[in-house]
């Protein structure tokens, strides 16, 4: 039986874009974009099997070897800190992790800083560099509401166009990291399937070079 490469893609807009890159690079599996509730698709001809995974879970599937490779946002990689290889920057889904607050916010350094975020690990590490005393408030979405209702002083969250911040009378104070989608690989599976994985990486690289 032909050896297949198991690939975890983040479900949603970014995943569809990334699937398009894989398809263009020669690893298509046309049914993958069909409207259905099915979560895995394979194409024996191109040797790939795609799994549509919740974006924040891609690192789990790859770290544990359930998938050989995957595509995860740098935000998820920084937050989950999986023991995987980061092979390639796909330069898709570019955005940034920022510290933001209401436009008229003035920091009082004598008080504990209340930080609302979906990324407690990233936020904790960021403030610990400065020895800043923080109270991390973990939320799961609509983070921009937190300063408006007085739940937090600042937020640590993803900013792409800046529209969400602007429309909620907020602005970025500091950029913490630039983010984009990364190709990651399970460390043990990388050794077993090195040729296949490197072939995928090289073809993706060639594709982006041809477009540049
Ligand atoms: C993300 C992020 C910001 C917004 C930034 O939220 O958390 O809220 O996008 O994008 P912008 O700078 O282009 O406005 P998402 O849409 O994922 O939903 P969430 O608020 O439920 O996390």
Describe this structure in words.
With about 210 residues, this protein is an alpha/beta fold. It is built from eight helices and eleven strands. The strands form two sheets. Strands 2-3-1-4-11-5 form a six-stranded mixed β-sheet. Strands 8-7-9-6-10 form a five-stranded mixed β-sheet. The radius of gyration is 19 Å and the shape is elongated. 1-O-pyrophosphono-5-O-phosphono-alpha-D-ribofuranose binds near residues 141 and 159.
Strand element count: 11
Report the uncertain regions: none
What sequence of helices (H) and strands (E) makes up the elements?
A: EHEEHEHEEEHEHEHEEHH
- Biggest sheet statistics: 6 strands, mixed
Helical fraction equals 25-40%
Bound compounds: 1-O-pyrophosphono-5-O-phosphono-alpha-D-ribofuranose
Helix/strand-derived category reads alpha/beta
Sum this structure up briefly:
This protein has 212 residues and is α/β, with parallel strands linked by helices.
Secondary structure layout plus pairing:
Layout: E1 5-10, H1 13-24, E2 40-43, E3 48-53, H2 58-63, E4 69-73, H3 74-80, E5 85-89, E6 95-102, E7 113-117, H4 120-129, E8 134-138, H5 145-148, E9 154-159, H6 163-167, E10 170-179, E11 181-185, H7 187-192, H8 194-211
Parallel strand pairs: 1-3, 1-4, 7-8, 7-9
Antiparallel strand pairs: 2-3, 4-11, 5-11, 6-9, 6-10
The site of 1-O-pyrophosphono-5-O-phosphono-alpha-D-ribofuranose has 12 residues, from strand 9 and helix 6.
